[in-house]
Amino acid sequence: MENKQSSSPASFVDSTVVPGDVVLDLSSMTNQTIKLGGGLRQDCDAISAMKAGTLRFSKPNKYWIESSQKRYVPCVEDTILGIVVDSKADNFLIDIKGPAMGFLPVLAFEGGTRRNIPKFEVGTLLYLRVVKANFGMNPELSCTDASGKAAEFGPLKDGYMFETSTGLSRKLLSSPACPVLEALGKKLSFEIAVGLNGRVWVNAASPDTIVVVANAIMNSECLSGAQQIIMVDHLLKNIQ
Amino acid sequence: MEGRLANSWRLTVNDKNFIKTALLSEIRIDGRKPFEYRKISIKFGRQLLKEYFLIDAILLVEAIRCILLFCIIEEDGSSEVQLGQTRVMGMVTAQLVQPYRDRPKEGILSIFTEFSPMADPSFEPGRPGELAVELGRIVDRGLRESRAVDTESLCILAGKFVWAIRIDLHILDNGGNLVDAANIAALAALLTFRRPECSLGGEDGQEVIVHPPEIREPLPLTVHHLPVAISFGFFSNESILVIDPTHNEEAVMGGRMTTTVNANGDICAIQKSGGEGVPRRVIMQCLQLATSKAASITKQIKDAVEVFNTERALRKIKRHPTSTGDDVREKQN
């Protein structure tokens, strides 16, 4: 513990951390605001890791821990894909692949009032944003962006949804674009929605395009950038 | 109530519709043709251990599983079958017991299934569910009714001692079509299982001596033929037929049928449990498809066993030709 606190915080960025590692010391970084993402917690002046993974830093001030797993641990401001499980008077119950059901308040839609509550049948796929993710509470979701606009959020029509690891879904969202998506996008036209909870939805004009895109993404999990491009070329040759 | 909701696995409306519409144009979500089987990979005891140690360097969760498996896996008579995403472990053990009264000269074959919640959150620990019972029954019927395993050769002393063969099937991951995967795992485990050699001795010739494997080479079971289970899924519209349905397809399909056939084209068993009715014409089509698939699967199982047996022969303990059980015992005394 002692020697870890004395080391400079920058050294932990992009390196592997395990639960209990003190990754940042706030006493040495006064007059600075930082934002903590998934897997980090604050105990007074110490920011410590809560899960094993790689510590990431994005300018100007965001820190989070990245790891790949099947179960999603909700985190504020993540965009996710959820499935409607049940509807109650005040909330929709949403399955988000997490330890608890997500609550989507019936008013959390653009211009939502008591009069125009949307009707979702069980099994509807929604693109959502996590608003609250506190301990011991069900995470609260919303179908609007921070300013109350519908943006891209809401139900997804048709298409096909498949499950990946959380690591792969984060890779798909990274910029510059993930090689597999870039290679596919050059030849095929399709629509995609990636949730950070390890769910990906794909839609295209014909079913075989959807199948090719879905399988290419699922296969890309353990491949390097160059391998992904070769794999996509190979797949596309087969269907033509 | 919420806990139960969280544990049940569900398919979105989008997926259900997509699977159905794609099937109309003969496309399946994993890129297969309707009558295409998934890739099968079969591994045995020692190969399994090697693989788990490699993976464990990377995955912590797997490490825990590895320790569990390490305790379980013996070298002979254990197999792990991977069919697409589905993983099933089969294990065969034997025990000397008294035979049933009405069949004093026959050994006993029994099958046990274990559906762990690790494989699928909807499997509840403890009491076996409906699916677990059905799976056990299908595998059991395929093996027993077709007399694939020669139970008479398991008799040592009529009415007193016979071998009871126990097949344990552990579902490790549910990716659909557990029945076929479990059946292949059971066959692969049976083919590699070896029981210790026995002989009768004592003053009245009624005493059973079990020779430890170090002294006499254990014997394989007599398996006459391999009854392979092939499952089909039926979809309501346009009477669409698929072979080897995945987890997602199982959630959408209207009915299923499992046929157990062997490479010679003999039909050992058919299981059609509930769901949609199927015309006779379709059943005949299924049986024809199943026969051709069974031949290729039988070949795959036999090839995998062959590889395992050669590996095993290379490691074989060298025995002195004259040494027998009695010699060793005398030396110990």
UniProtKB/TrEMBL annotation, chain A:
<feature type="domain" description="Exosome complex exonuclease Rrp40 N-terminal">
    <location>
        <begin position="34"/>
        <end position="71"/>
    </location>
</feature>
<dbReference type="GO" id="GO:0071038">
    <property type="term" value="P:TRAMP-dependent tRNA surveillance pathway"/>
</dbReference>
<dbReference type="Pfam" id="PF18311">
    <property type="entry name" value="Rrp40_N"/>
</dbReference>
<dbReference type="Pfam" id="PF21262">
    <property type="entry name" value="RRP40_S1"/>
</dbReference>
<dbReference type="InterPro" id="IPR004088">
    <property type="entry name" value="KH_dom_type_1"/>
</dbReference>
<dbReference type="GO" id="GO:0000177">
    <property type="term" value="C:cytoplasmic exosome (RNase complex)"/>
</dbReference>
<dbReference type="GO" id="GO:0071051">
    <property type="term" value="P:poly(A)-dependent snoRNA 3'-end processing"/>
</dbReference>
<feature type="domain" description="K Homology">
    <location>
        <begin position="159"/>
        <end position="207"/>
    </location>
</feature>
<keyword id="KW-0271">Exosome</keyword>
<protein>
    <recommendedName>
        <fullName>Ribosomal RNA-processing protein 40</fullName>
    </recommendedName>
</protein>
<keyword id="KW-0963">Cytoplasm</keyword>
<dbReference type="InterPro" id="IPR026699">
    <property type="entry name" value="Exosome_RNA_bind1/RRP40/RRP4"/>
</dbReference>
<dbReference type="InterPro" id="IPR012340">
    <property type="entry name" value="NA-bd_OB-fold"/>
</dbReference>
<dbReference type="GO" id="GO:0000176">
    <property type="term" value="C:nuclear exosome (RNase complex)"/>
</dbReference>
<dbReference type="InterPro" id="IPR036612">
    <property type="entry name" value="KH_dom_type_1_sf"/>
</dbReference>
<dbReference type="GO" id="GO:0034475">
    <property type="term" value="P:U4 snRNA 3'-end processing"/>
</dbReference>
<comment type="similarity">
    <text>Belongs to the RRP40 family.</text>
</comment>
<dbReference type="Pfam" id="PF15985">
    <property type="entry name" value="KH_6"/>
</dbReference>
<dbReference type="InterPro" id="IPR037319">
    <property type="entry name" value="Rrp40_S1"/>
</dbReference>
<dbReference type="GO" id="GO:0000467">
    <property type="term" value="P:exonucleolytic trimming to generate mature 3'-end of 5.8S rRNA from tricistronic rRNA transcript (SSU-rRNA, 5.8S rRNA, LSU-rRNA)"/>
</dbReference>
<dbReference type="GO" id="GO:0071035">
    <property type="term" value="P:nuclear polyadenylation-dependent rRNA catabolic process"/>
</dbReference>
<dbReference type="GO" id="GO:0005730">
    <property type="term" value="C:nucleolus"/>
</dbReference>
UniProtKB/TrEMBL annotation, chain B:
<dbReference type="InterPro" id="IPR001247">
    <property type="entry name" value="ExoRNase_PH_dom1"/>
</dbReference>
<keyword id="KW-0963">Cytoplasm</keyword>
<dbReference type="GO" id="GO:0035925">
    <property type="term" value="F:mRNA 3'-UTR AU-rich region binding"/>
</dbReference>
<dbReference type="GO" id="GO:0071035">
    <property type="term" value="P:nuclear polyadenylation-dependent rRNA catabolic process"/>
</dbReference>
<dbReference type="GO" id="GO:0071038">
    <property type="term" value="P:TRAMP-dependent tRNA surveillance pathway"/>
</dbReference>
<keyword id="KW-0539">Nucleus</keyword>
<dbReference type="InterPro" id="IPR027408">
    <property type="entry name" value="PNPase/RNase_PH_dom_sf"/>
</dbReference>
<keyword id="KW-0694">RNA-binding</keyword>
<dbReference type="GO" id="GO:0034475">
    <property type="term" value="P:U4 snRNA 3'-end processing"/>
</dbReference>
<dbReference type="InterPro" id="IPR033100">
    <property type="entry name" value="Rrp45"/>
</dbReference>
<dbReference type="InterPro" id="IPR050590">
    <property type="entry name" value="Exosome_comp_Rrp42_subfam"/>
</dbReference>
<feature type="domain" description="Exoribonuclease phosphorolytic">
    <location>
        <begin position="225"/>
        <end position="292"/>
    </location>
</feature>
<dbReference type="GO" id="GO:0000467">
    <property type="term" value="P:exonucleolytic trimming to generate mature 3'-end of 5.8S rRNA from tricistronic rRNA transcript (SSU-rRNA, 5.8S rRNA, LSU-rRNA)"/>
</dbReference>
<dbReference type="InterPro" id="IPR036345">
    <property type="entry name" value="ExoRNase_PH_dom2_sf"/>
</dbReference>
<dbReference type="Pfam" id="PF03725">
    <property type="entry name" value="RNase_PH_C"/>
</dbReference>
<dbReference type="InterPro" id="IPR020568">
    <property type="entry name" value="Ribosomal_Su5_D2-typ_SF"/>
</dbReference>
<dbReference type="GO" id="GO:0016075">
    <property type="term" value="P:rRNA catabolic process"/>
</dbReference>
<dbReference type="GO" id="GO:0034473">
    <property type="term" value="P:U1 snRNA 3'-end processing"/>
</dbReference>
<protein>
    <recommendedName>
        <fullName>Protein ECERIFERUM 7</fullName>
    </recommendedName>
</protein>
<dbReference type="GO" id="GO:0000177">
    <property type="term" value="C:cytoplasmic exosome (RNase complex)"/>
</dbReference>
<dbReference type="GO" id="GO:0034476">
    <property type="term" value="P:U5 snRNA 3'-end processing"/>
</dbReference>
<dbReference type="Pfam" id="PF01138">
    <property type="entry name" value="RNase_PH"/>
</dbReference>
